[in-house]
Each structure stands twice: as structure tokens, then as C-alpha cells.
Design a protein that fits this description.
Layout (H helix, E strand, L loop, with lengths): L1 H12 L1 H29 L4 E16 L5 E15 L13 E2 L6 E2 L2 H4 L8 H30 L1 E3 L6 E3 L3 H5 L6 E5 L2 E2 L3 H11 L4 E7 L2 E7 L2 E6 L5 E6 L2 E2 L4 E3 L3 E4 L2 E2 L3 H10 L5 E5 L5 H5 L2 E4 L19 E3 L7 E3 L3 H28 L10 H14 L1 H19 L7 H14 L5 H31 L1
Antiparallel strand pairs: 1-2, 3-4, 5-20, 6-13, 6-18, 7-8, 7-9, 9-10, 11-12, 14-19, 15-16, 15-17, 17-18
Helix pairs in contact: 1-2, 1-13, 2-4, 2-10, 2-11, 4-9, 4-11, 4-12, 6-9, 9-11, 10-11
């Protein structure tokens, strides 16, 4: 059980990093989500009974001047806003009485004006949509802030080399090809290429390429790679076989050049200089492992203009073979407007990729074992915290997008399920019967509990097996 033991050791020795970062990120996102419901509900004149971070028994709280109880509860894995007139926080049932037991009485006409269920269908839709909507807005604001104040990593979508025998070589990719579109979707950065190919798995995919002044269309079927992270969690991704710009090769790692075995760096340098501005294959020693071995032979087209240092023994890149044509990865700071546009674009791309991956789980293309639960999310949060503040902030934005997206699924008990009922009500001009809604909410609860149990069992089984 190396994965479980390693993760257990990491968590126990870095309790504040793993546990603290997970609870911090989750609490922030829950607060943001519920604040969306709260603000729009107040704007629509709904009275709020309670605003809770967590479930179960209250640990600490206070009551504001509007009568809302703000509190932290015992189980910090979610939260809720309970609105006046709702029997439970999920708004599954409503009551037109105030108080409980012998003290119960019917609502007055004035009190009824502040009940959630008494609002018109469009107001209820706005209140429900505000939760996932503000998760998206929050993610966009985080990414905009990062791109404006820190910068956005940008790598040109160009192949500096092609892995020999890979899907890219079989499809006809060549060094220095620039990818402009994948399946009709515009590509601006190499990071977009990685994400698109990773999700495509082994599906035939159409690429639009710019090769010099020519526009070329290629169809490639990425290789499906099954990988396992340091904790033992498994995932599948597509591997195309193109090397990103900004890469250089240490000459000492080159073993074969254009079919000629080399004994040392001096011989390798001499052969390389004689083949500048040509396309040929080099064989490298990248270490052990299936993925490393798969990339040991690459097709390159080094440019003499980029490798002048190889002729000068005192130059900093004397032992480096530069294989890319374009500049290295850069972190570009955007202005507020451009940063906002980039953040919206990134949020859209993440949403589309996530939906595609979920769809693959349903149709069997991707294993449902990749569905992660609390343990996996906590492990990722801890890893991001150890990687630095920027990584943790980026992860928070990604998780906020996923939280907003999942809550929009048309499953009863989720916001999307409520929205579906309200859309039907708007079309029929009357709500579905209470009995139908009750059965739907029971089914939705069973689905959600089943998914949660399955996801967390996935995490446990992958760690212990």
C-alpha cells in the first residue's frame, strides 16, 4: 500500500498544510456560493433564517439585526442558506406556518411576502442560479487578478520536436508546426493543446496547422496513457507526441544522431553542427519509465541561428542543443480588460473540457474510477499549497468553476434540479405537484449520496490496492 502509506505520512507530517489548505479552500468556496444565494434572495425581499458554513451542530455563530443566524457548524464539508418558509436548507419542502409544536401559527400576509416560496418563478430562478453563477464570477475574478498582477504563463502552440513513432509523427506533424485549431476550437497557447489532447484520449482528432505560409489539416489519434500520481491516484490522458517550445537538450544525453551512435559530447556537437537546418532523429537517454522511454527518440529540426553558442566553448549554452524556433515560455502581465478576457476564455475552456471528461465517463471512454472524492481533492489542495501561493490560488479558481458547473447539473437537490423545476413551472404556468417534487428530491438525494460514496470509495481503493 505505498500510495496510502505515502499519503498518510504526508498528511500526518504536514497536517496544517494538507488539512488546513483543504478546509480553507472549501470554506471560501462554500461561503462564496451561499453568499450568491443570500445576496440575490435579500435583493428579492426574502428573509434569511440562517447562513451556515458546515452542517450539523453549531460551533459558533451570531444573529444579525435582520434576524439571520450566521454560524460555523460541526461538519465543515459544505454549507447552506435557509430561507424563510423553507422546511429544510435544500428548499425541498415549504411551510406556511411559523413556529413549531403548540406555538405554530399561520403566516401573516406581511410575513408571507418574505417567504422564498411566495416569490414569483423568475425571482426564485435568479436566487437559485446566483449560487453557481457567483462561483463562476469568483473564478473569473481570481484568474483576472492573477493575469493582471502576477501574469499568465504563455507558450506558443508550436511543436519544437516530434516524438518518433508517436501519434503526431504518424499523422504527419513536423518540427515547428504551429497548431491553430483543434476540432474547430481556436488555440492560442501550448497549454491549450495539452488540455485538449489530454481530454481527447485516443479519439481521432482534427488539427489545423500553420506550416510556414501553408495551412495544413491533419487528423491524429492520440495515444491513451494510464498514469498514476505520487499518491497512487490513477488517471487517463491523451498523448500526442509533440514537444513544447522553450526546450533544449543537454548534449550529454544524446546517444544517437541520425542513425549514428556518438561516444561523447564533442562528437555529438560536431555531428549536430553539421546537420543544422535539417530534419533528423536523435535518440536520448531520458531515464527509466514507459513514458520516458516513449520519448527517447525525437524528430528535430534545429536552426543554426539559435545554436551559435555550440561553437563557443565559453558560451553559456555550449552543451545545449536548442530545438525550438520560437521564444520560450513567458509570463505575460495583462491589462484589466485583456486580463478579464483571458480569464473568461480560460473559464470557458475548463468548463468544456470538464464536461467532455464527464461525458466520457458516462459513455465508457474514460474509467469512472477517475472520479475523485474528498480524499483526492484534499491531497491536491495540499500539493498545491506546498507548490506555492499562486498554485493554490489557481487551484481555488479551478475548484470554483467545477463547483459552479456541478451545481448546475439538472439533478434534484442541486441548484440545477431546482432550476429545472422552475423552468417547467414557467412553461406550464403552475408548479409540479408536491408529490412529484418529493419523489424527485428523494431520487436526487439517492443519486448524490451514491456518487459521493462511489467517489470516496474510489479514492480509498486506489490508495490501499
Amino acid at each position: 500500500m505505498p500510495g496510502f502509506q505515502d499519503l498518510l505520512h504526508l498528511v500526518t507530517t504536514n497536517m496544517w498544510v494538507y488539512g488546513g489548505s483543504f478546509l480553507l479552500v472549501l470554506s471560501i468556496l462554500v461561503f462564496v456560493h451561499e453568499m450568491g444565494h443570500y445576496l440575490v434572495a435579500r435583493w428579492c425581499g426574502v428573509r434569511i433564517d440562517s447562513f451556515s458554513i458546515g452542517f450539523g451542530r453549531e460551533i459558533w455563530g451570531f444573529t444579525d439585526r435582520h434576524g439571520t443566524r450566521w454560524k460555523f457548524s460541526l461538519i465543515p464539508l459544505g454549507g447552506y442558506v435557509k430561507m424563510f418558509g423553507d422546511v429544510d436548507p435544500a428548499s425541498a419542502k415549504q411551510s406556511e406556518t411559523v413556529g413549531a409544536g403548540d406555538a405554530a401559527r399561520p403566516m401573516t400576509a406581511e410575513e408571507r411576502k418574505g417567504a422564498f416560496f411566495a416569490k414569483n418563478v423568475w425571482q426564485r430562478m435568479a436566487i437559485v442560479f446566483a449560487g453557481p453563477g457567483i462561483n463562476y464570477l469568483f473564478a473569473i475574478l481570481i484568474l483576472t487578478g492573477l493575469y493582471v498582477f502576477y501574469g499568465q504563463p504563455v507558450t506558443p502552440p508550436q511543436a519544437s520536436a516530434i516524438v518518433a513513432g508517436s501519434a503526431a509523427e504518424k499523422a504527419g506533424f513536423q518540427p515547428h508546426d504551429v497548431i491553430t485549431e483543434i476540432e474547430g476550437r481556436s488555440i492560442a497557447r501550448f497549454e491549450d493543446v495539452r488540455r485538449e489532447v489530454a481530454v481527447k484520449l485516443d479519439t481521432p482528432t482534427v488539427f489545423q496547422i500553420k506550416r510556414g505560409d501553408q495551412a495544413v489539416t491533419l487528423t491524429a489519434e492520440p495515444l491513451r496513457l494510464e498514469s498514476e500520481d505520487e499518491h497512487g491516484f490513477k488517471q487517463s490522458r491523451g498523448f500526442l507526441g509533440i514537444v513544447s517550445p522553450g526546450n533544449a537538450i543537454d548534449i550529454k544525453h544524446i546517444k544517437v544522431i541520425d542513425g549514428v551512435a556518438v561516444k561523447d559530447a564533442d562528437q555529438a556537437r560536431e555531428l549536430l553542427l553539421s546537420r543544422m537546418d535539417q530534419t533528423f532523429v536523435v535518440e536520448l537517454d531520458r531515464g527509466e519509465g514507459a513514458e520516458a522511454e516513449a520519448q527517447n527518440r525525437i524528430l528535430i529540426h534545429p536552426l543554426a541561428a539559435n545554436n551559435a553558442d555550440m561553437k563557443d566553448s565559453v558560451a553559456p549554452n555550449f552543451n545545449a542543443l536548442v530545438i525550438s524556433e520560437s521564444q520560450e515560455e513567458a509570463v505575460i502581465k495583462h491589462g484589466p480588460i485583456d486580463g478579464l478576457g483571458q480569464a473568461i476564455r480560460e473559464t470557458w475552456n475548463i468548463t468544456v473540457s470538464t464536461l467532455e471528461a464527464i461525458g466520457q465517463m458516462f459513455n465508457g471512454t474514460r474509467s469512472a474510477q477517475e472520479l475523485g472524492g474528498i480524499i483526492r481533492i484534499g491531497a491536491i489542495a495540499g500539493d498545491m499549497a506546498q507548490a506555492g501561493v499562486i498554485a493554490l490560488i489557481t487551484f481555488t479558481a479551478l475548484l470554483s468553476i467545477n463547483l459552479g458547473l456541478i451545481n448546475l447539473f439538472p439533478v434534484p437537490m442541486l441548484d440545477g434540479g431546482h432550476l429545472l423545476f422552475y423552468v417547467i413551472e414557467a412553461i406550464r404556468r403552475k408548479p409540479l405537484s408536491e408529490q412529484i417534487q418529493e419523489y424527485a428530491f428523494r431520487l436526487g438525494l439517492a443519486i448524490l449520496v451514491g456518487i459521493m460514496v462511489f467517489a470516496n470509495l474510489n479514492d480509498i481503493m486506489q490508495l490501499i490496492l
